[in-house]
Specification:
- It is a single chain.
- The protein has 407 residues and is of the alpha+beta class.
- It has 4 domains: 2-72, no CATH class; 96-189, Orthogonal Bundle (Arc Repressor Mutant, subunit A); 213-291, no CATH class; 308-390, Arc Repressor Mutant, subunit A, CATH 1.10.10.
- Helices cover 44% and strands 11% of the residues.
- The protein has helices at 2-25, 35-43, 45-55, 96-108, 117-129, 142-157, 185-190, 206-209, 227-244, 255-262, 264-276, 308-323, 330-343, 356-370; strands at 28-30, 59-63, 68-72, 114-116, 161-165, 180-183, 248-249, 280-283, 287-291, 328-329, 374-377, 380-383.
- The strands form 4 sheets. The protein has a 3-stranded antiparallel sheet.
- The radius of gyration is 24 Å and the shape is globular.
- Mean pLDDT is 89; it is low at 394-407.
């Protein structure tokens, strides 16, 4: 009987770990997009809610009947290099116009459970006309129409909108296209992960939007808070980064965070959190890395097959590592890709237009930066400690440096 109970406990732990990683990869997890993962979240929802609150301070909302689970991630410094992406084409990042229209559309969708693409467009035009700081919306303009469609398609991906008749893409060609939507207001109001309601904030105080009262300002060493509050903030702030970022460099942490991570209690808590999420904690002199063997907890992978930018990133990383610890000029890396174009005519066909090498180098270096592998400054690129994992040949002795982290 004890063997059976142990096996059942192991199975439950494995399922919980899978559910945790699924929520990290898709903080708005829907039954339609991930039926198996969603079933695990529903099955273990009580334990998962407790787990996220204990280790990260993030709130998890599970709505089995509505068919979604929402992990409300929060951070005092939301990362600027993880933008929403356009559902069409190469999934380019959202620009300011698309973010603006996305917010305006979301506000207009609260009006009722059913609407049309034309009604929303009319309301956007009216709303933007009375806001002095927002450029007017005109669906006749092709750029506005494309940005509008991108905002709608993202809301469809999130399950907030469902096209029950017609196709959103049709609006790109015809401004009189007929598209009927069903609105899921429950999912809509869950999109905002801020702890504070924007309508209750002091004017233009964006810092209050991400302020988390439970810590009492413990991130400021000069603030007098209880030991419980400060330890809770230390644990949550480090575990959040371990689960959300590809690498956590000690140089990027505060003195209090480094002391906590080096303490017996702190290290045990970090190891426990990472292990229960189904990952391995890699501990180095320069920092910490939560390794997901199945790469299930991220929406972006490196290396990744089939990506020209990923292939170029590996090529450039070899050059950057060979020069370590000296930086490599970005111009040299661009020339390297231009030479590669000549040597392999069939490679990177979509980057063969004017400025192609510069564009590809920019995307490749941005990818390396998101994974905490390189640092760009003053027109040069320098390898960071985690880049040594991809070195070919002799090991490289790396020194701690600041990093720009991502997933």
């Amino acid at each position: 009987m004890s063997d059976l109970r142990s096996e059942l406990d192991r199975q439950r732990a494995t399922e919980r770990a899978q559910a945790i990683r699924a929520l990290l990869a898709r903080p708005l997890l829907t039954r339609d997009a991930g039926p198996d993962d969603f079933a695990l979240v529903v099955r273990h929802r009580g334990e998962l809610i407790t787990w996220f609150d204990t280790h990260t301070g993030w709130r998890l909302v599970v709505e089995p009947r509505a068919g979604y689970a929402r992990l409300l991630k929060s951070s005092p410094q939301p990362p600027a290099d993880r933008p929403a992406r356009r559902p069409r084409g190469a999934r380019a990042p959202f620009d300011r116009r698309r973010y603006t229209l996305f917010c305006l559309v979301a506000a207009e969708l609260l009006a009722g459970p059913v609407t049309t693409i034309g009604i929303i467009a009319e309301r956007l035009a009216q709303a933007s006309a009375v806001e002095p700081d927002i450029p007017g919306f005109d669906s006749i303009r092709h750029d506005d129409r494309r940005a509008y469609v991108d905002a709608l398609l993202v809301l469809e991906e999130l399950g907030v909108l469902t096209a029950v008749d017609g196709s959103t893409d049709a609006f790109l060609q015809q401004t009189d296209a007929k598209v009927l939507y069903r609105v899921d207001s429950g999912r809509l109001v869950r999109l905002l992960a801020a702890r504070q309601a924007p309508s209750r904030l002091p004017a233009f105080d964006l810092g209050a939007l991400v302020y988390e009262p439970r810590y009492g300002g413990a991130d400021d060493p000069g603030v007098d808070v209880s030991d419980e509050q400060r330890n809770r903030w230390l644990r949550h702030s480090i575990v959040r980064r371990l689960l959300d970022d590809p690498v956590v460099y000690l140089a990027d942490l505060s003195e209090a965070q480094r002391s906590y991570a080096a303490s017996i209690t702190g290290r045990r808590m970090l190891r426990t959190a990472v292990a229960e999420a189904g990952m391995l904690l890699e501990e180095r002199a320069e920092g910490l890395l939560a390794v997901d063997p199945d790469a299930a907890a991220t929406d972006e992978k490196f290396p990744a097959g089939g990506s020209v930018a990923g292939q170029a990133a590996l090529l450039l990383l070899d050059t950057i590592l060979a020069a370590h610890p000296a930086p490599v000029a970005e111009e040299q890396l661009i020339r390297q890709l231009a030479d590669r174009f000549g040597a392999v005519p069939a490679w990177a066909r979509t980057y063969r237009s004017d400025g192609g090498p510069e564009r590809l180098a920019g995307e490749a270096l941005a990818l390396l930066g998101r994974f905490g592998l390189v640092e760009r400054a003053g027109g040069g690129v320098r390898a960071l400690p985690a880049a040594a994992r991809y070195a070919v040949g002799a090991a490289i002795v790396a020194t701690p440096r600041a990093a720009r982290s991502n997933r």
